[in-house]
Amino acid sequence: GSDNYILSDPTIGIPTPMLGQWPDKSYHTSADTLEVIDPFILAQSAAFAASFAYTLANLQPEHLPYLMARGRQDLIHQSYQKCIALHQKNASPEQIYLQSQLRRSARLACNQAYLHYFETTPAKIVEMVEDENTWITQVCDAEMERFLDDFYPEYIPQPQVIPEVYRYIPRRAFIAPLNKLDDLTAGDTEKTKAYKAFTKDFRKQVNSPFSFESLIQYHMDGKKTLWQIAQSAIYEANEGTVEYVHAYVQLLTMLGLVNI
Length: 260
Known about the structure:
The chain is mostly helical. Helices cover 59% and strands 2% of the residues.
């Protein structure tokens, strides 16, 4: 419920990176006082924050190849490591393949975001981003093919079969994330009953329903299907189900907060 989850909502669109050390037993407690602050870490954090601000304020088209190359490097390294980790946890090849697709999509979207960093977007910037994303797609496909050959030689990726009930496209009718749904149902018996039923049937399924539902809202852009929203939110939260996402969206629709 802190400011970052509001500012980071795509309808607000203010990136909020966090610099922290974890675990931090005094974080957001009365023990978070000057006495427990490490001056060196504070100086490093301030330097990073200044670097963020300076880079964004002075970003030029000629900087993009360096930034996108760094993102590409991280994607390739992390993707393979995460595939290996999932394999060691006996995840199915379908799960590993899907997660690799979601990671790639996130990187492509990050690169697309560079188009909005400039007052005007010259054709050369569009071309740079398109070339980078084409290259990433090709490399990721090759990396995944190699991984599957090494560990799941019998597996051949197949298009997902998406149930008809999850193919609809929801669009939010509100700006900024929702906080307390019970405030929106007060005084309406039918809405209150539906909200209580959803809470009873679904919210106990996940460790952090508030975070999961925020992610569902973030991905509800009027372009993604319910199935795509669910896959992205489940991947980012590392919990949840498509049924949960569907029920949540249907509840918001009933409350007049979402249009199908």
